[in-house]
Amino acid sequence: MGAIINAARLHRHGEPLQIESVELPEPGEGEVRVELAFGGVNPVDRYMAEGSVAPQVPLPRTLGAEASGRLDGRPVLVAGGGLGAIRDGVWAQAAVVPRDSIHELPEGVDLRHAAAMGVAGLTAWHVVCDVAQVSGDDRVLVLGASGGVGSMIVSLARSLGAAVWGQTGSAEKAAPIEEDGAERVVVAGPDELAEAISEFQPTVVFDPLGDGFVPVLVEALAVRGRIVSFGTSAGPEVQFNLQSLYRKSGSLRGYGGMQLSPGERRAGLGAALAALRDGRLRVRVGDVLALEDVNDACQRLVERRVQGKLLLELG
Question: pLDDT, tens digit, for every residue of 71-81?
Answer without folding.
Answer: 999 999 999 99
